[in-house]
Amino acid sequence: MSDAKQKILLVEDDPGLQKQLKWSLADYELVMAADRDGAIAQLRRHEPPVVLLDLGLPPDVDGATEGLAALQQILSLAPSTKIIVVTGNLDRSNAVKAIHLGAYDFFQKPFDPDVLALMIARALHVHTLEIENRMLAAKQRGSALQGLITSSEPMLKICRTVEKVAPANATVLLLGESGTGKEVLARGVHELSPRAGKRFVAINCAAIPDTLLESELFGYEKGAFTGAAKQTIGRIEYANEGTLFLDEIGDLPMPLQAKLLRFLQERVIERLGGRGEIPVDVRVVCATHRDLAGMIREGSFREDLYYRLSEISVKIPPLRERPGDAVLLAQAFLERYAREQGRNIRGFTADALGALEAHAWPGNVREMENLIKRATIMAEGNQITAADLGLDTGHTEPPPFNLRQARENAERLAVSRALAHSDGSIAQAAELLGITRPTLYDLMAKIGMK
Q1: Strand 283-288 and strand 172-175: pairing?
Q2: Count of other CB atoms within 10 angstroms of residue 4
Q3: What's the number of CA atoms in the CB half-sphere (13 Å) around residue 132?
Q4: CA 142 to chain centre
Q5: Mean pLDDT, rounded, for 309-315
Q6: By Cβ atoms counted within 10 A, which residue in 35, 100, 317, 322 is the most buried?
């Protein structure tokens, strides 16, 4: 029964009051501590949502310095904890001070059991609501980037960048290897922008022959060329008031680069065979896996166009530089394809997880998706093995000799792997690492992970 009860931490050095409160609060699981050190230890171990804190703790039982110090330390470790302070009849000033420092409420000795029970119930309710609101807010923030699965700090930094630049009307250039998720981020820019309710129009510049690409982008009038039987608007015009995504912009032919540059400068187009200028209001997002700087030096890409396209430039790291993401993505793809194929596959074996983490993924997420889909279809057991994946374990880099660097690398890798294996759950990751959640939060802050 006690496992189903809400935990409450009571920080009180008076054994008589401890017994009295334990009896009157029988509906809760009461965790006891008699001083500040004991309170912090119990907080780390049990993570209670509500703390009843006596301000008169040893060694300052007649004052409030130790109790107020405990209050601040508890809130620094667990800011969402609701602290109800216990004061004497003549100690109202310290109670008010505690409220200013972040306490949820206070009650005075001798206490009324019914009032205290109501106060605790209300504090628990507020704590629950705050957690639900944070989860809802996080879900809403992530909805625009819902196609992006990551737990690595490099990609989380990219997501924060996208959230910052999306509301602006600046042109965005996404740089990265094939399969790193450039279109997902482009859609995120659109969905987080004021143009979210309008069209998102994507065109792959490398997939359309040069002779057709101009008419595809700018449209054409009836009779502009043989076979032009009717007026047709281009992708740029079709995206009016929305977002135009030009994928593989590095493959745009040089003559079209000049025409695209004029559109970006003037925000007007001319259809093939037309004479009038057509104003178009569109947000442009581009992407490429090519080295545009090198192409500019070679003379195959216009420098002035590059500066027009790269008002905001975002470099997307490859999968091999995103610690923990390989396992996280593999689990997500396995869940999807097992459901689609009607297979009862329950995860990966240990050697499969090791192979996933060791592989360099030259094809990035696209390679990962295809491999997991194939393994889901071909696997004979209820778990994916390294043999099903067909991956080599590879060779690892020799560890650094610097002890501090080696320790930081080991901590970062362990935390990233734990988060990936626990599907992003802080509680499960902390359990895998053998530490408490507050300790994991402290560790993530120390190594620069959020």
Answers
A1: parallel
A2: 6
A3: 6
A4: 7
A5: 94
A6: 322
